[in-house]
Structures
1.
Amino acid sequence: MQITFLGHACFELSDGVHTLLVDPYLTGNALAAKTAEEVNPNFIFVTHAHGDHIGDTVSIAKRTGAVVYAVVELADGLLAGQGIKAARGNIGGRQATPFGSVKYLPAAHGSGVPGGLACGYLFEIGGKKIYHAGDTGLIADFSLLREEKLDAALLPIGDFYTMGPEDAARAAGMIGAELSIPMHYDTFPVIRQDPERFRALAAARGCKAAVLRPGESIRL
Ligand code: NI
Ligand code: MN
């Protein structure tokens, strides 16, 4: 399993056969490691409809034929009629996928579409469990993830719109993943953060964290 950080909340997950892309905000992101033309996912996951998450989803899906996963209101409201394949789901639901499975998890954040909920995703792929939190504040629900024995948790640390480093470190402690990776920082002035501070705060809680620069990968 390879996890590649492409900047902001965008990650590429690959088991060598399937490539998943989460929240592909590439165009307009000065820190993005790839352009929207350089990614070739089989599956795209959108955590919510804010522009810094839905990003280039439609153009990438049109070019690659990737299936786009989103909560029902986002799939029906924004993705329907765009000539792309959308897969719907909702909070708490797990569904089998060609690469393994995905479960839609709660996130405390606006969805960007009427009636919809922002979400995080728990992926089972390549024998690993990887959690992408999306945009969220600190929620007690994180502690429910401990039983999942996650291999990796991708957590926002930017503050202002989501958890900051302190709350993200608390989240890492509640989740208890083997590895936590910070995201959603530095893209805009209001979310400028030192990810090493998050790493140190997580370490103080006994949690290992790895800081990836945009374009860097880690193997699980
Ligand atoms: Ni957002
Ligand atoms: Mn965001």
2.
Amino acid sequence: MAVLVTGGAGYIGSHTVAEFIDKGEEIVVLDNLQKGHRNAVLSGAFYQGDIRDSEILEKVFSNHDIEAVIHFAADSLVGESVQEPLKYYDNNLITAQRLLVCMVKYGVKKIVFSSTAATYGEPESIPIRETDRKVPTNPYGETKLAIETMLKWCEQAYGTQSVALRYFNAAGAHVDGHIGEDHRPESHLIPIILQVAAGQREVLAVFGDDYPTADGTCIRDYIHVTDLANAHWLALQKLRKTGESAVYNLGNGEGFSVREVVEKARVITGHSIPLQIVLRRGGDPAILVASSRKAQEELGWKPQFNSLGQIIQSAWNWHKNHPKGFDSIK
Ligand code: UFG
């Protein structure tokens, strides 16, 4: 039986595919390649197509004996979601609904869903626990929260078993160096900092230094992408063993401000990384730091690359060897 990974050519998706292959799983990837990279997926069956295209979805589910789905395919930019909310309702919510319809039709009962810290909005306390208040401050978080709720109702109606993983800030690259982060255009903090360090950009625009934090810049909890990937495999093991649905935060439990991330990157890259303070970006909460105790206790999850230095170093190794991202790989 196979595990279907939607969005498996994307950043977190491709690292998860690599992790599942390492564990000996049979993988099928479905990705429309709007954001993903074909050469980020080294093995397994690959289908290029969109979940909203019922023909390709039917083809995948009828060609393979799908046991479970790991669902990444989505748009995931906080700022863009504020500018274009309907795009997020379409590509995130409607896509998940179509996928679930097909899962129900083919009797596929297990799904690990890529959710986000953005479901919480402004946290009521730090570190954030799974049961804390959830009032998203952007349409991205809103659509992901709506999908979590949809999964709850699907369990009641169709017996769909789900694990929703609320990621904090994914960063870093695979330690063997064959895959890493490559968004077009890049919008995430660490790769942008590294583009400045590599001389591909002149300056890092810091989105606001008037937040209620010690240095005025936003604080985030950075988690290595391979540690996230491993949590997906553990989540599927839990579904296989217990069939019980659950929601888990995934972060390192330590927050770093934008200025602190820059400082660490200066040490690792040896570059001065000039900054320019600009206006706040819409939809950004001041502080997001996870309590991942539940994932550690119930899944046995233990992040391996849990220092900011290790995370930035792995991203820097990928960036130096692949200055044009996946276009650097022939
Ligand atoms: N930032 C800058 N300048 C930049 C880019 C980012 O100052 O050029 C700041 C942002 O304002 C934010 C921090 O750096 O304070 C991190 O920004 P990212 O864009 O790297 O990440 P986000 O926190 O916006 O979002 C990420 C994922 C989301 C997820 C969220 C959860 O992209 O999918 O983490 O914390 F929801």
